[in-house]
Amino acid sequence: MNDRSWMTTSTICSELEVSSRTLERYRKRTPENNPFPEPDITAAGAPNKWYRHKVAAWQEAETKIKRAKPFASLHNPRSDRGRFTQRNET
Fold it and tell me: What segment(s) does the record annotate as region Disordered (predicted)?
């Protein structure tokens, strides 16, 4: 885990298959939503750089987060007209 090799923004984006804008959105997440770590090296006019082990740790934590499944609301109860209805709490 002491891998001291660097990853640039473009390298991370290609490995995660996301855009640089999405990576920036990951960085702006709130602490409880597993934000992407801040870069270890930043310099004007140069690409940001992260330690590879920090990116790997973020990826592992990201896979453990339980998120709502896409289209989960499609299975909510509907009225005769096809509209979503409130669930009765009895």
Answer: 68-90
